[in-house]
Design brief:
By secondary structure, this protein is an alpha+beta fold. The chain contains six helices and six strands, in the order H-E-E-E-H-E-H-H-H-E-E-H. The chain is globular and about 35 Å long.
């Protein structure tokens, strides 16, 4: 029994410390608390956005939804609520979900609130913002509504600042 336990612990540690080479290597919690493997989105580009409900950029939810619908065959927008900047996402996951649905009709996948910067940064965002890890981008979010464009194979392509409009040519010409 002891040997089995040691074997299981060793296996778990090797899996959990495995180097991530693609966004598809991550599993995240949905806003409803369910595990979602980002590998589910293989074959489509991703626009990964750190979002907040009480920010000057919050109206971008409308354009993120528009982008999501217009490019549904080739792009998935993923929203990651974060309270890192100006405490502009203080709500619970249920409150955030309700706010997004009621005020902006958000239907794209939303995830549980995470940290996107600092000592408690979520591993996904540590990967997205580390050029040594992802091979392309070395920029961490500087405010809410920063965006990472990821290709169909999970490779990080480009970072866009908060002020980049989701429906801008800068983004849409890459889709």
């Amino acid at each position: 029994m002891k040997l089995l336990l040691i074997s299981l612990i060793t296996l778990f540690m090797s899996v959990s410390t495995e180097k991530k080479t693609s966004v598809h290597d991550f599993t995240m919690k949905s806003i409803d608390g369910k595990d979602v493997s980002l590998a589910t989105f293989k074959g489509k580009k991703l626009l990964i956005v750190n979002v907040a409900s009480k920010c000057g950029y919050t109206p971008q939810y409308k354009e993120l939804e528009e982008l999501s619908k217009k490019y549904a065959g080739k792009l998935v927008v993923l929203g990651f609520p974060a309270n890192n900047f100006g405490s502009q996402e203080p709500g619970s996951n249920d409150e955030i979900k309700g706010f997004c649905e009621k005020n902006y009709g958000v239907t794209f996948p939303m995830f549980a609130k995470i940290s996107v910067k600092g000592k408690d940064v979520d591993p996904l965002y540590a990967f997205l913002s580390n050029k040594d890890a992802n091979g392309t981008v070395g920029t961490a979010p500087s405010w809410n509504f920063c965006k990472y464009l990821v290709d169909e194979n999970g490779k990080v392509l480009k970072f866009f600042s908060s002020g980049t409009d989701p429906m801008s040519k800068e983004i849409t010409e890459l889709l």
